[in-house]
Amino acid sequence: MYALVEYKGKQYKAEKGAMIQVDKLDVEAGQTVTIDTVVFVNNDGKVSVGTPYVKGAKVVVKVEDTFKDKKVIVYKYKSKKDYHRTIGHRQQYTNVRVEDIVVA
After folding, report:
1. Which H helix or E strand runs over 61?
2. Between the chain's N and C termini, which has fewer beta carbons within 10 Å?
3. CB within 8 A of 71, min separation 6: which ones?
4. Beta-sheet pairing, 2-7 with 83-89
5. Residue 10 backbone dihedrals phi, psi, to 5 degrees
């Protein structure tokens, strides 16, 4: 059984027990979050497609930890103008573990 979940503008495949890496959540580690924006559910061959979301379906996830990704270097440059600038960015993510998928 798996579900496709839309969360913070992105879609993720959620299977029971799977670890998903989402954009940073302002939630303490160990707490649970319920996601009700389920787009698609496959329950052992029985498929439910939402318009836009599946009614009554939710995914319960448990927050594991928050971390920063690798540094991405952004280099700005304009030719013939003696302008160049280097900026680094580290995106923050949260690991969540799928506890349960509930289908109505």
Report:
1. strand 58-68
2. C
3. 88, 89, 90
4. unpaired
5. -125, 155
CA dist 86 and 80 (Å) reads: 17
What is the average per-residue pLDDT within 82-96? 97
Span 26-55, pLDDT tens digits: 999 999 999 999 999 998 888 989 889 999
Determine the structural domain holding residue 82 and report its residue range.
2-102
Cα–Cα nearest to 97, from 34, 13, 16: 16
Is the model's pLDDT at 65 over the cut of 90?
A: yes
Query: Is 0.85 surpassed by the pTM of this model?
Result: no
Nearest Cα neighbor of 58 from 100, 10, 16 is 100
> What is the rounded CA–CA span in Å between residue 104 and residue 58?
9
